[in-house]
């Protein structure tokens, strides 16, 4: 009896399992190599440019490779102003839409509304670009004129070199702006952010909602006291995910804006540039050193979106919404 | 069952002889109904607005429309439909607030106003979607009605030629080839990675998951620029459908891998354990239990990835080059695709070309819609368990 011992438990795979495990590991490694390779390659290619121009790469606003003046200050400001306009439209709309779907909509429409939002997310960005350029831009220009007329004293709503009260208004100063591009980008961002928020709102424990209603809360009281606090992580996370998408959006922006290399806080005024529209516009005639500069700009954009997305996923996972709650 | 367990061992012999349902100690009692009670009334009014409330609700919005028309179109210099709609929203909300204040307190006012703001936002979103689809449909209708739009390419067709000449066959074929190649690359790699991350696990899988999640942040234009600078500038290959397919694959791979990972993670652990407990190897468990269970979800993930890939313009803009003629070989030089065709034609500024671009956008939108509906139909059986 002395030599009876518990059998050794081993998780080591044998036979077919070993083949499967190592095969899967090889696939994982190759994907790691491909995706990680892109990041490493970008960093490696960006390094000469960053080394050569140093901090001036981030502070210089002109992009004139012929005169050896390259910087992404104006481009970054443009990227952020387009993204901010997009978020200003998309965030309130997506929160309200998510609330509508999860709390207000009649139950029989709910799944079709969810499908509608998912479908919006799948619509190609170039279609939204066409929509923004041909359908929305005239209205957006009119709205821009109105904003300048009444809110022009706020610097961001100012448009240089025009008189908003002129008898015939100069349309060309108000189109192709960060504002117009931001509206089209908002259409792309909204469904993404809305999908995340709706998912989190729908996880709100029914018991807590019913408790609020049973205590006599109105529906809005229930939303503000239960659903919104519960979904705060989802709201922040969805917003950040949308921001990450908005920063990298290319084709709608390229279609709408006219390029201008100038640090411009005036979002209503014609002309701006984002990192992605810079790449789309300049890659064709770029020499190898200019290509490195474009790759550096792309790398900076990638790092920014990566940071934004990482913060978003941390926020969503940390919030109470992610954890399984009882009741 | 609990009653029989409580009785103790002395009844063991009795239970062995008498079948369960004939045990004399447990008379079955049917729940009793009161025959004379009135039939239960459905509480129809619970949570629903009374006719009064409904009248106040609809009436406020009608009054709001009238006020808005009066103020924007007659009193203030704010002509046009947009101002009327904005005024309708403002005055409708205002009248709603006033009627709510007449019947209830501040809490009631807040509730009604919040409801109308939320519903209006939903209407705006709906209007944006519908306007996108209708606008593209109306502008792109004329070229689409010509059959040759689908059966011929643009070779030898001038920018000002009518719609009875030329079409987008080359762009459709190009999109198909590029996506096909991208899918052949991403499908095994993406799902394989997801299987590795969820089924094998370990420290290395965590690294892979972190990197894959990080790479979903890669802007699509940077993916295109990567392929452009590696394949076309550094290695000297010409622009081709293959390069475009690789760019799309680089963009799609993290998306599909991540979505598939999410799908595989929600496969119930009990199914895996049951399979392993029956003696199946891990490989058989994955192949016969995990993957079939997750199949609808995986199909949805892949199709949504494809829908994303087919509409993405920026990677193909950098890598494929727009040909006007049909190219069937992925390495035979420049190849057009639907998004690129739309982009190039819109940029040309020629009205006829723009109309063609809208036609192609209509086709692209229809394609995405079809893919999306397929994805929804495949996902449907899975929704019961969720």
Automatic annotation (TrEMBL), chain A:
Keywords linked to the UniProt accession: Cell membrane, Membrane, Phosphate transport, Transmembrane, Transmembrane helix, Transport
Residue stretches in coiled coil: none
GO molecular function list: phosphate transmembrane transporter activity
Major localization listed first in the record, in broad terms: membrane
CC terms in the record's Gene Ontology section: plasma membrane
InterPro entries in UniProt: MetI-like, MetI-like_sf, Phosphate_PstC, Phosphate_Transport_Permease
Subcellular location: Cell membrane
Segments forming domain ABC transmembrane type-1: 76-312
GO biological process: phosphate ion transport
Transmembrane stretches, start-end: 26-47, 69-101, 113-141, 174-196, 291-316
Described purpose of this protein according to its UniProt entry: Part of the binding-protein-dependent transport system for phosphate; probably responsible for the translocation of the substrate across the membrane.
Family: Belongs to the binding-protein-dependent transport system permease family. CysTW subfamily.
Protein name (database record): Phosphate transport system permease protein
Organism annotation: Nocardioides psychrotolerans
UniProtKB/TrEMBL annotation, chain B:
Annotated TM spans: 55-71, 83-105, 117-138, 168-196, 217-237, 243-264, 285-307, 357-379
Signal peptide, first to last residue: none
Record-linked InterPro entries: MetI-like, MetI-like_sf, Phosphate_PstA, Phosphate_transprt_permease
Keyword terms of this UniProt record: Cell membrane, Membrane, Phosphate transport, Transmembrane, Transmembrane helix, Transport
Annotated stretches, region: Disordered: 1-49
Entry's Gene Ontology cellular component terms: plasma membrane
A Pfam family reported for this protein in Swiss-Prot or TrEMBL: BPD_transp_1
The UniProt record lists the keyword tRNA processing: no
Any one Gene Ontology BP term: phosphate ion transmembrane transport
PROSITE patterns found in the cross-reference section: ABC_TM1
Domain ABC transmembrane type-1, chain residue ranges per copy: 172-375
An annotated Gene Ontology molecular function: phosphate transmembrane transporter activity
Membrane topology, from the record: Multi-pass membrane protein
Domain of life: Bacteria
Cell compartment(s), UniProt: Cell membrane
Family classification: Belongs to the binding-protein-dependent transport system permease family. CysTW subfamily.
Function as written in the Swiss-Prot or TrEMBL entry: Part of the binding-protein-dependent transport system for phosphate; probably responsible for the translocation of the substrate across the membrane.
Name this polypeptide is given: Phosphate transport system permease protein PstA
């Amino acid at each position: 009896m002395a030599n009876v011992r518990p059998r050794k438990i081993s998780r080591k795979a044998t036979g077919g399992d070993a083949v499967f495990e190592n095969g899967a590991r090889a696939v994982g490694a190759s994907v790691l190599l491909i995706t990680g390779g892109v990041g490493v390659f970008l960093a490696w290619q960006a390094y000469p440019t960053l080394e050569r121009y140093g901090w001036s790469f981030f502070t210089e606003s002109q992009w004139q490779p012929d005169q050896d003046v390259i910087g992404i200050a104006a481009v970054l400001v443009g990227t952020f102003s387009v993204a901010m306009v997009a978020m200003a439209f998309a965030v309130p709309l997506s929160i309200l839409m998510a609330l509508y779907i999860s709390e207000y909509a009649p139950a029989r429409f709910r799944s079709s509304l969810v499908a509608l939002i998912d479908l919006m997310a799948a619509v190609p960005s170039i279609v939204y670009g066409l929509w923004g350029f041909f359908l929305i831009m005239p209205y957006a220009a009119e709205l821009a004129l109105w904003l300048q007329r009444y809110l022009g004293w706020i610097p961001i709503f100012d448009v240089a070199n025009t008189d908003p009260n002129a008898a015939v208004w100069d349309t060309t100063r108000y189109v192709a702006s960060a504002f117009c591009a931001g509206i089209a980008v908002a259409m792309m961002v909204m469904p993404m952010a809305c999908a995340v928020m709706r998912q989190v709102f729908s996880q709100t424990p029914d018991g807590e909602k019913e408790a609020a209603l049973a205590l006599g809360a109105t529906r809005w009281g229930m939303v503000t006291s239960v659903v919104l606090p519960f979904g705060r992580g989802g709201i922040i996370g969805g917003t950040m995910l949308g921001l990450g998408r908005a920063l990298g959006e290319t084709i709608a922006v390229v279609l709408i804006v006219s390029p201008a290399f100038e640090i411009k806080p005036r979002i209503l005024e014609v002309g701006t540039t984002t990192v992605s529209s810079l790449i789309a516009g300049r890659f064709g005639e770029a020499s190898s050193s200019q290509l490195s500069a474009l790759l550096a700009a792309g790398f900076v954009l990638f790092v920014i979106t990566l940071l934004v997305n990482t913060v978003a996923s941390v926020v969503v996972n940390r919030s109470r919404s992610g954890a399984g709650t009882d009741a | 069952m609990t009653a029989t367990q409580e009785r103790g061992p002395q009844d063991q012999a009795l239970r062995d002889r008498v079948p369960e349902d004939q045990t004399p100690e447990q008379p079955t009692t049917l729940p009793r109904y009161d025959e004379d009670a009135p039939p239960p009334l459905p509480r129809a009014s619970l949570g629903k607005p009374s006719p009064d409330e409904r009248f106040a609700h609809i009436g406020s919005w009608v009054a709001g429309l009238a006020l808005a028309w009066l103020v924007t179109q007659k009193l203030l210099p704010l002509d046009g439909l947009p101002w009327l709609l904005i005024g309708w929203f403002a005055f409708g909300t205002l009248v709603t607030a006033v009627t709510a204040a007449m019947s209830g307190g501040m809490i009631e006012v807040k509730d009604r106003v919040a409801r109308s703001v939320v519903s209006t936002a939903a209407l705006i979103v709906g209007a944006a979607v519908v306007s996108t689809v209708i606008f593209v449909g109306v502008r792109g209708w004329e070229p689409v009605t010509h059959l040759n739009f689908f059966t011929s390419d643009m070779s030898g067709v001038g920018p000002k030629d009518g719609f009875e000449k030329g079409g987008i066959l080359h762009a459709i074929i190009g999109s198909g080839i590029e996506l096909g190649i991208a899918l052949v690359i991403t499908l095994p790699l993406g799902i394989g990675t997801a299987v590795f991350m969820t089924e094998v696990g370990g420290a290395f899988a965590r690294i892979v998951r972190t990197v894959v999640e990080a790479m979903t942040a890669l802007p699509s234009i940077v993916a295109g620029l990567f392929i452009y600078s590696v394949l076309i500038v550094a290695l000297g290959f010409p622009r081709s459908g293959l390069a475009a397919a690789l760019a799309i694959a680089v963009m799609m791979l993290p998306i599909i891998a991540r979505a598939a990972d999410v799908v595989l993670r929600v496969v119930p652990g009990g199914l895996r354990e049951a399979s392993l407990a029956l003696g199946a190897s891990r490989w058989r468990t994955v192949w016969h239990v995990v993957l079939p269970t997750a199949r609808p979800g995986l199909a949805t993930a892949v199709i949504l990835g494809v829908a994303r890939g087919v509409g993405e313009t920026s990677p193909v803009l950098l890598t494929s080059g727009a040909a006007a003629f049909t190219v069937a070989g992925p390495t035979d030089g420049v190849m057009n695709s639907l998004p690129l065709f739309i982009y190039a034609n819109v940029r040309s500024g020629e009205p006829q070309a723009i109309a063609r671009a809208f036609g192609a956008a209509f086709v692209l939108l229809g394609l995405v819609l079809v893919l999306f509906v397929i994805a929804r139909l495949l996902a449907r059986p899975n929704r019961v368990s969720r």
